[in-house]
């Protein structure tokens, strides 16, 4: 290795990784001003990467058969050469954990350290969604707590019983998050205290709600209204509702539901920031790797290797390409970051009209860090997708109506079209698009204890019948009584379809 170059060739050692990390840190933190958690870089094998894939990438997680099933699927396609593996996986924790593949070349290790250990790391630490919903310092301790708790339940109640409970909890996990109000992040000490309180009080809410439900002649409107008040309906977080009020669940089962629910909540910000997160990390690695090349710390050959990998990551296939699967978040995110930097440095008159707050400010990193901190995907696109980029991407809107003989081009490149295109693309990333809007709306407290949920239907999109039946099956197992799911038009409140399931079916 020469004095200037961080490495030569593809081989690397742990000492090389340290030199790469330190050089990337000089550029990332010293020149770009990135604000990150301390880094912990773990080198893993291909098999360990497959294992991380199968368990949502978390270093500590309880056992479940679905993780093994996914591992077998991923391993099969990987060994057959039909799919590659990610170069890295990064964990939103403090310290920030970056898993890098031991098969990576030295150039790729530099790339993934710049991308994950500094780009993603900065975004995790500073974006308001992660600051609001997660506690990076507490997640690893909580995962260890959850793993140990579920393992203890398996020993006491049997693996099959715990597995069935986890099956149902996982099926309802997409409806197990709070989407809007601010909740306190995970804290291990708080969870341990809660578990002690839960055992001591023996589910006070459960007792208040169900033990005093009147029977026969004792049923009064006042007592029923009191019980309804305890339910706090409507409730968007179905797992939370079951954890607190399901009549037949034992205390340990409620705690397992809570573990699944809080882990689902931990991943919630990532669902809303895919374009921004990958755009931030890709822009950071692009700036850092270019700077390392300018400083003579990576060779021309290594730089070409980097450019090849970077170009593949930001490639956006056309609609007719066999590999097309929608908008590539790396491509859109990176192009939008570059476009914002262009507007800040060298704005056109059009840019000044559309973006008067940032056009010509000169310091692109200051603007980008403000953007990375204060937006999620839908608001980011709605605010910063420029006409220049819409023309570059050749964006337009086609209406394909089922009974129309021809396609209709609805939005084109004019002033009104730009606004409509930007608003339409941003809508694709809204929170409600990630999972159906299903809420608990009523319970028959005085009679059958039937649970009633509503699915708010937008644009006539009903639930898949088979999927709805399977999830309802899990819901009835947890609730213990009949469950009615009504699909209701979001505009008119008309009931479009109803699904009924019983625990004995």
Question: Could you please describe the fold and organization of this structure?
Answer:
- Helices cover 55% and strands 10% of the residues.
- The protein has helices spanning 14-31, 46-54, 65-79, 106-126, 128-133, 139-157, 159-172, 188-201, 204-211, 221-231, 238-245, 251-272, 274-294, 300-313, 329-345, 349-354, 364-374, 377-384, 387-393, 415-427, 465-479, and strands at 39-44, 88-91, 96-101, 397-399, 408-411, 437-443, 451-457, 483-489, 495-501.
- The strands form three sheets. A four-stranded mixed sheet has the order 6-7-8-9.
- Helix 6 packs antiparallel against helix 12, helix 13 (274-294) packs antiparallel against helix 14 (300-313) and helix 13 crosses helix 15 (329-345).
- The longest helix is centred in the middle third of the chain and has 22 residues, at 251-272.
- By secondary structure, it is an alpha/beta fold.
- A hairpin with a 4-residue loop joins strand 2 and strand 3.
- It is built from 21 helices and nine strands.
- It is globular, with a radius of gyration of 26 Å.
């Amino acid at each position: 290795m020469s004095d200037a170059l961080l490495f030569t060739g593809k081989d690397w050692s742990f000492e090389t990784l340290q030199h790469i990390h330190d050089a990337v840190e000089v550029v990332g933190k010293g020149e770009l001003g990135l604000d990150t958690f301390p880094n912990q870089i773990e080198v893993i094998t291909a098999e360990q990467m497959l294992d991380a894939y199968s368990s949502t990438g978390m270093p500590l997680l309880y056992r479940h058969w679905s993780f093994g099933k996914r591992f077998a699927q991923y391993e099969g396609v990987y060994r057959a050469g039909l799919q590659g593996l990610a170069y890295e996986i990064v964990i939103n924790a403090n310290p920030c954990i970056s898993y890098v593949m031991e098969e990576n070349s030295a150039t790729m290790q530099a790339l993934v350290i710049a991308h994950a250990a500094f780009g993603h790391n900065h975004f995790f630490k500073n974006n308001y969604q992660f600051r609001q919903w997660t506690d990076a310092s507490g997640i690893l301790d909580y995962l260890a707590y959850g793993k140990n708790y579920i393992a203890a339940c398996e020993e006491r109640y049997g693996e099959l019983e715990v597995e069935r409970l986890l099956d149902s909890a996982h099926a309802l996990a997409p409806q197990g998050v709070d989407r809007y109000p601010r909740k306190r992040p995970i804290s291990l000490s708080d969870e341990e205290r809660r578990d002690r309180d839960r055992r001591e009080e023996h589910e006070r809410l459960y007792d208040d709600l169900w033990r005093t439900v009147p029977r026969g002649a004792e049923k009064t409107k006042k007592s029923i209204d009191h019980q309804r008040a305890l339910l706090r309906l409507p409730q968007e977080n179905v797992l939370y509702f079951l954890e607190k009020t399901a009549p037949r669940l034992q205390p340990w089962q409620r705690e397992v539901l809570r573990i699944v629910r809080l882990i689902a909540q931990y991943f919630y910000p990532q669902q809303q920031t895919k374009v921004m997160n990958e755009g931030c990390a890709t822009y950071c690695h692009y700036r850092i790797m270019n700077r390392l090349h300018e400083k003579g710390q990576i060779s021309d050959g290594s730089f070409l290797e980097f450019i090849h990998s970077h170009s593949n990551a930001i490639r956006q296939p056309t609609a007719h390409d066999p590999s097309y699967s929608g908008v590539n978040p790396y491509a859109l995110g990176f192009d939008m970051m570059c476009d914002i930097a262009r507007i800040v440095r060298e704005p056109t008159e059009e840019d000044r009209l559309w973006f008067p707050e940032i056009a010509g400010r000169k310091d692109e990193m200051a603007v980008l860090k403000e953007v990375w901190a204060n937006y999620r995907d839908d608001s980011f696109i709605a605010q910063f997708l420029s006409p220049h980029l819409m023309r570059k991407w050749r964006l337009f809107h086609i209406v394909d109506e089922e009974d129309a003989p021809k396609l209709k081009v609805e939005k084109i490149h004019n002033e009104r079209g730009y606004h409509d295109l930007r608003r339409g693309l941003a809508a694709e990333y809204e929170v409600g698009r990630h999972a159906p809007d299903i809420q608990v709306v009523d319970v028959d407290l005085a009679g059958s204890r039937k649970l009633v949920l509503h699915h708010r239907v937008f644009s006539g999109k009903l639930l898949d019948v088979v999927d709805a039946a399977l999830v309802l099956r899990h819901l009835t197992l947890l609730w213990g009584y009949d469950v009615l799911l009504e699909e209701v038009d979001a505009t008119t409140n008309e009931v479009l379809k109803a699904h009924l399931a019983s625990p004995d079916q």
